[in-house]
Known about the structure:
Strand 1 (about 10-15), helix 1 and strand 2 form a beta-alpha-beta unit. By secondary structure, the protein is of the alpha/beta class. The protein is built from 7 helices and 7 strands. The chain has helices spanning about 20-25, 40-50, 85-95, 110-115, 125-130, 135-145, 170-175; strands spanning about 10-15, 30-35, 55, 70-75, 95-105, 150-155, 185-190. Helix 3 packs across helix 6 (about 135-145). About 25% of the residues are buried.
Amino acid sequence: MAPWTRRQQKLLEVGCGTGRFLQFFWESGFDVTGLDASPAMLELARERLGHRADLHLGQAEHLPFRDKEFDVVALLTLLEFCPDPEPVLQEALRVSRKAILITFLNKQSWYALCRRGSPRRKKSGLLDQARWLSWWEIQALLYHHAGPRPMVGRSVLIGPKRTWSANSTWRKLNSRLWPPYLGAYSGVRCDLVGDKPLTPILAWKEKAKLRPLEQPASSGVNRNEEGR
């Protein structure tokens, strides 16, 4: 669970494309901003989101925003299409205050290995233009530019592409969350602040334990520290 709330939080997606993920983030409660280098993509995003998103034309390597202007910055399947991912990550870290979200095509997944090892496959299309990354490369990039920060990584689509159909017997396995180095599509959240985790909603169903009446309320003990 993320240690930051979504309500009234500003999220920037760099390389937002047609705004599909911006819509998801908006529906999740974020105030959303999108940036893309393609006017055509931004027009489609504007048709999708209307006035719900603040959209900007620009380059990922030179973001037109102030330092720490956003609570969260999302780089979703973007770094593998950048000639040099480092300045893109540096800019994202510059304008982010709480967290960075990164998703990437995992070059060590079963799917990637099958693509590379297939002698019949024609090497063409968008995915062949991408510089697929590994979980360890993403970790190294984040550590180099953000320092030692808490990170949580997961992946999906563990099977080969032919098993990705919704009707496949692999459906449950492909939709399950796996370690970030296994599935074809991986993601990581890097926390930039040390906020304490929020109380999960289900925890409110538990009855509070009453403390002994003889314990003075002003004992000077931090109750959050008791029982640790």
